[in-house]
Amino acid sequence: MNCAGNSWKSLENLTISEVRDATEALRALVRSEGDIEIDLRPVEDIDTAGVQLLVALRRSVERAGKSLRIHANHNGALQKTLIGIGLLTAEGTTRSAGEQLWAGYIEEGATPA
């Protein structure tokens, strides 16, 4: 994991095995000044624990009065997990306003950084 300023780039998977370490790094970002940017493009595997961490992060960022920007690849790990758990349709599209938030994190045509 890389932290620089108010951004965090995960260089590994975001599964239950990595969530504890990621949580500490992300908590530090929430306590820092300014808005937060997360880069998930290099991530190859995200499970429901990783999605739960992102949900908790979003809530913490909102309570802190900041904004959160997440970068994730189209057809990448985050999109595949969101489809698998039913937060996006099989095509990666949304059915509701709540799902639109997740779809907004997926970058059309993005490639790993």
TrEMBL record:
Alphabetical list of PROSITE patterns matching this protein: STAS
InterPro entries given in the database record: MlaB-like_STAS (IPR058548), MlaB_ABC_Transporter (IPR052746), STAS_dom (IPR002645), STAS_dom_sf (IPR036513)
Signal peptide: none
Coiled-coil stretches noted in the UniProt entry, renumbered to this chain: none
Annotated CDD domains: STAS_anti-anti-sigma_factors
The STAS domain, residue ranges: 36-87
Name this protein carries in UniProt: STAS domain-containing protein
